[in-house]
Specification:
The protein is of the alpha+beta class and 235 residues long. Helices cover 17% and strands 43% of the residues. The chain has 3 helices and 17 strands. The N terminus is likely disordered.
């Protein structure tokens, strides 16, 4: 009996593997089913994303094992069949599923049940997904390139561009972060003296090149970034 319980407990622990963009991924069917059940039961807020478009909040209505049933967000225009479902877990970590829309009926989106769950890895500095419109201006690049920011911490950011503009190891000087809390609230500017591109990868769903940038900043900039992250976490 003890041996069976130990094996059952070990099976309930998902195996995680490193994935792109600072996320980790699991294909544990048992764990994914438990997450879906929790999302449905607690009516957890979901955001649907396609390329550069993101919906307003919606919920998971149910799961059949083959399909997810999602309440179709109002006034959101679908752009193809690929779909990313974003949410925060109980530890407030950013998570997502990638899936495909099968059909839509009676304002319900039927999507394929996901085979993989992605969760943001815990780091020394907590990271958050930032609202749309936040971007980084990098001095010295042609045209003063603006890079949309996806997630951010006091130690770095994940940003992207439609074509490759940065390479691993590149040093960036005077990075101006234009940040907001969403909606029509006033945006703030935080200037990071120096950063280094530590990784790049292709997000095929969004058709974007993504860059992980590690910051080298002073105490003042780090405190402002930490305050911004806290505001997003508690907002």
């Amino acid at each position: 009996m003890f041996f069976w319980k130990r094996k059952r407990k070990e099976a309930d622990r998902p195996a995680w593997a490193a994935a792109q963009g600072g996320f980790q991924a699991t294909r544990s069917r048992r764990f994914i089913e438990s997450v879906l059940s929790s999302l449905e039961r607690k009516k957890t807020e979901l955001m649907l994303a396609q390329k550069e478009s993101q919906s307003g909040p919606t919920i998971l209505l149910g799961s059949t094992g083959r399909h997810l049933l999602i309440d179709a967000p109002a006034a959101w225009r679908l752009r193809g069949l690929g779909l990313r479902i974003r949410f925060k877990d109980e530890a407030r970590l950013d998570c997502y599923f990638d899936t495909k829309i099968v059909y839509i009926k009676d304002e319900i989106i039927y999507a394929k049940a996901p085979a993989e769950l992605y969760r943001l890895q815990r780091r020394a500095h907590p990271r958050v997904e930032v609202p749309g419109g936040c971007h980084a201006l990098v001095a010295g690049l042609a045209g003063g390139a603006a890079f949309p920011v996806r997630n951010l911490s006091a130690g770095g950011m994940l940003c992207c561009s439609p074509s490759r503009q940065l390479a691993c190891g590149m040093v960036l000087e005077n990075i101006d972060l234009i940040l907001g809390l969403g909606g029509a609230q006033e945006r703030s500017r935080i200037t990071i003296p120096r950063g280094r591109v530590v990784r790049t990868f292709v997000d095929r769903l969004a058709r974007r090149i993504c860059y992980g940038v590690a910051f080298e900043c002073g105490i003042g900039e780090e405190k402002r970034l930490m305050a911004y992250v806290r505001d997003l976490e508690t907002g």
